[in-house]
Specification:
- Helix content is 34%, strand content 20%.
- The protein is α/β, with parallel strands linked by helices and 429 residues long.
- It has three domains: 70 residues, Udp-n-acetylmuramoylalanyl-d-glutamate--2,6- Diaminopimelate Ligase, Chain: A, domain 1 (3-Layer(aba) Sandwich), CATH 3.40.1390.10; 206 residues, Mur-like, catalytic domain (UDP-N-acetylmuramoyl-L-alanine:D-glutamate ligase, 3-Layer(aba) Sandwich); 126 residues, Mur ligase, C-terminal domain (Protein-Tyrosine Phosphatase, Chain A), CATH 3.90.190.
- The strands form four sheets. The chain has a seven-stranded parallel sheet, with helices on both faces. Strands 15-16-20-17-18-19 form a six-stranded mixed sheet. The chain has a four-stranded parallel sheet with strand order 1-2-3-4.
- Helix 1 crosses helix 3.
- The mean pLDDT is 91.
Length: 429
């Protein structure tokens, strides 16, 4: 089945689904294959749950009725359909990637832009070769601006996602030590993320850049760009007005202070980028302020909350050496008493795993911290002479320890990769 024929079925549906748990009545369901499953086996279930059509790529699972659409490869067909759908629109499409902060930045940008425009944005962190097509297929004829988050763990992935999404404007949050296993080293990270810049330059798009990041400046010096920062030679001058002691990040634009709900100085550039894009799209400062101040972080990202016994900073959605170091530096600006760290392994570091975990331990062992709990096989291997370290192989091992020690009136920072699942410790703190 050719993409134009498939598109006709898409237009007759209520949207696209790839997970039988998220089926909406009348949708077009793609039977995708994974390492341990064959999506074709879910075709009948998808129809029973309300799907109007199912896309299969195995003739053995095609039944002789109009609801079954046979293609050569379901994933490729999903991507081609998304690309075709994207090309039906001439609206601005913002591509966003980076090593750290891209989901938080995307949420902030979406909150600001939606003060004036009808937006379609990536849900959660569905930013890969499946998530990006799903985002594109959510664009409808009411959408005025689309915001597409792009993740990558190897070279050429951002380039591929750009070909699908066709961004007209793009922003790279930063270049850090993330997915080193796939990229090889930091130079590989820079090269991979910069594929967004290359696409924009080739297609006469605009690069949003943080003027204070020398890498961004150098990599975009030959192309169209829109800049923000604290220096004077920028398109939008944005000051960091955050008070000390790990208070909520505050920015100043044109003499107006905007106080966010995010803590940690590393969030300044995320918030500033959202404000800058608001100005780029000629949104009033009043609306930009409202959007930023109304944003409430969720999904275990930079969340401060009070339990019955302690104050927690939960940032357990993802972690890499760059984000871990920045978050720790910010946390260490608060009062020096009654501080606890619970840190989980940083995943996908390949041959750099042992070195990077040891560097984090070396950084924190001389700090004034009551106790440091390290969780995961990589942190378990680290060495320290400090007496305030305690190591655990798994998160499950931490729970009985917390129940026994029963922390009271502590300020506790929790951070690790999603695979370590540190968020389950909340209920024990």
């Amino acid at each position: 089945m050719q993409v134009k024929e498939l598109y006709a079925y898409f237009l007759r549906s209520t949207g696209v689904a790839t997970d039988t748990r998220k089926i909406k009545k009348g949708c077009l369901f793609f039977c995708l294959k994974g390492e341990k499953f064959d999506g074709n086996t879910f075709a009948e279930e998808a129809l029973a749950k309300g799907a109007k059509f199912v896309v299969v790529d195995d003739p053995k699972h095609q039944k002789n009725n109009h609801s079954y659409l046979l293609v050569k490869e379901s994933l490729r067909s999903l991507q081609e359909l998304a690309h075709h759908h994207r090309n039906q629109f001439s609206i601005p499409v913002i591509g966003l990637t980076g090593s750290n902060g891209k989901t938080t930045t995307k949420e902030l940008v979406n909150t600001v832009l939606s003060q004036q425009f009808i937006t379609t944005a990536t849900e959660g962190n569905l930013n890969n070769h499946i998530g990006v097509p799903l985002t594109l297929l959510n664009i409808n004829f009411e959408t005025q601006i689309a915001l597409v988050e792009m993740g990558a763990n190897h070279l050429k992935e951002i380039a591929f996602l750009c070909e699908l999404a066709q961004p007209s404007l793009g922003y790279i949050t930063n270049f850090g030590k993330a997915h080193l296993e796939g990229f090889g080293n930091v130079d590989g990270v820079i090269k991979g993320k910069s594929e967004l810049y290359q696409f924009l330059e080739k297609n006469k798009g605009i690069a949003l850049i943080n003027q204070e990041d020398p890498k961004q400046l150098k990599l975009t010096e030959e192309q169209k760009r829109f800049s923000f920062g604290e220096s004077n030679n920028v398109d939008i001058h944005i000051k960091n007005k955050t008070p000390g002691n790990n208070q909520s990040v505050c920015i100043e634009v044109d003499g107006i202070e905007i106080k966010s709900g995010l803590k940690g100085n590393y969030n300044f550039s995320n918030i500033a980028a959202a404000a800058a894009l608001g100005f780029y799209f000629k949104i009033s400062l009043e609306k930009i302020k409202k959007g930023i101040e109304n944003y409430i972080p969720n999904n275990n990202r930079s969340q401060w909350h009070e339990t019955n016994s302690n104050t927690l900073l939960l940032d357990a959605y993802n972690a890499n050496p760059s984000s871990m170091r920045a978050a720790l530096e910010s946390f260490l600006t608060i009062e020096k008493k009654d501080r606890i760290l619970i840190l989980g392994d940083m995943l996908e570091l390949g041959n750099y795993a042992q070195q990077e975990h040891q560097e984090i331990v070396d950084f924190i062992e001389s700090k004034e911290i009551d106790q440091i709990l390290l969780v995961g096989p990589e942190f378990k291997k680290t060495k320290s002479a400090a007496l305030n370290f305690k190591k655990f192989l798994t998160t499950d091992e931490v729970i009985p320890y917390l129940q026994k020690i029963n922390y009271q009136n502590k300020t506790i920072f929790i951070k690790g990769s999603r695979g370590i699942a540190l968020e389950v410790l909340n209920q024990h703190l």
